[in-house]
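Q:
My hope is that you can spare some time for a protein that puzzles me. I hope you can help me see how the letters and the tokens relate. Thank you; the sequence and its tokens follow:
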Amino acid sequence: MILLLITLSLFPLIFRRRMAALYRLRQCHLTGRAASHLHTSSRVSAQQHYKMLVLGGGSGGIAMSARMKRLVGAENVAVVEPSEMHYYQPLWTLVGAGAKDLKSTGRSTASVMPSGVKWVKSKVQEINPNTNTVRTDDGTEISYEYLIVALGLQLHFEKIRGLPEGFEHPQIGSNYSVETVAKTWKALQNFQEGNAVFTFPNTPVKCAGAPQKIMYLSDAFLRKTGKRSKATIIYNTSLPVLFAIKKYADSLWDIVERRDLQVNLRRNLIEVRADKQEAVFENLDKPGETKVIEYGMLHVTPPMGPNSTVKGSPLSDEAGWLDVDKYNLQHRRYANVFGIGDCTNLPTSKTGAAVAAQSAILDRTIRKVLRNEKPDKKYDGYTSCPLITSYNTVILAEFDYNGQPLETFPINQAKERRLMYHMKADVMPHLYWYGLLRGLWGGPGPYRKLFHLGMK
């Protein structure tokens, strides 16, 4: 255990140096191909063509564009992404609790875009896989040989009556949006007494643990500031369970009971009356039955859904998600189309950790397809959710498609640990910026084998 602690404490520095060295080595290899060292951008209306077109500049899109640059050359890769800023969203839970600054979670898209690839600063308007073309909102038509869809999902605050306009009131926040995450911290700081209410919607969400993480952090903050005795902390979730994986759910229930937190299952937020500080919930087990709860603070996790462009294309399944093979991430009907991340219908939790694991599998799949070979690596559904339970403890949940724990470290990860908080707050951001986004981090699989081998 001591060796493990030392290794993890030094990991950010060691990893950053090794990844930088590997990155420079691979960049030097590419210079022989006369690749440009500056990415380019485009807003021209003339038709463009690329061997590898990536839709979306989030974690999955940037990671795969970096990998594809090494595979087919920067000049053959383009990324369609309108945003000027790129955010490491997993830290927004800590931003909402005042433990991190919002600015520290963002970098310019230009700084994370792989050098040499074409950056098309537009929004995807239409995808036509039958003609291998994409049209952007400025009228640009782009054709491709291979398409990687990484468009994420969409937030739908508007599906809750009274939102998003309700965010103008100081008692409401949400860690799920760059526009509202700072409002969570202000609402927490301003809270004096009454109900502190936290919600989980009746839709798929990204990072399914995040809606309750802010509850635990708020509880810790109120205890630290002497306000806890005047607060009733309520977590209303649409789910029939506190957490989907029993091993971790059992530990979370222990925390709920020990800290006197009120958890109500199968309760869905349908309306916010911000002027009255009231939230209306429906009982999903009794249609038509509602309950009004007054609040002194409200954290809203919005309903979420598939990307509208994907949903309106031939690439979607019946529910609107990108329809890919759950093992190799290749589209089920269009062999030259692939998907990664939150936009897909992969039956696993939508997290950054899942994207990392998927990026390694998808890279292997595409390499095989380009050689007219059958994909030989299978994605096992690995995903991870660092469940922050205080300002210095985390339960690190890791599991697969079958809902079975798939833990990296040779310890009981269902236990609250300071070490795992360090992983969440300090190590994982380094893995993200210097590993995943450069296409050099494909998840902890190799390290899992190493750690467990060392314990035998």
Notes: The mean pLDDT is 92. Residues 155-305 form a domain with the FAD/NAD(P)-binding domain fold (CATH 3.50.50.60). The longest strand covers residues 141-149. The CA atoms of residues 147 and 337 lie 5 Å apart.
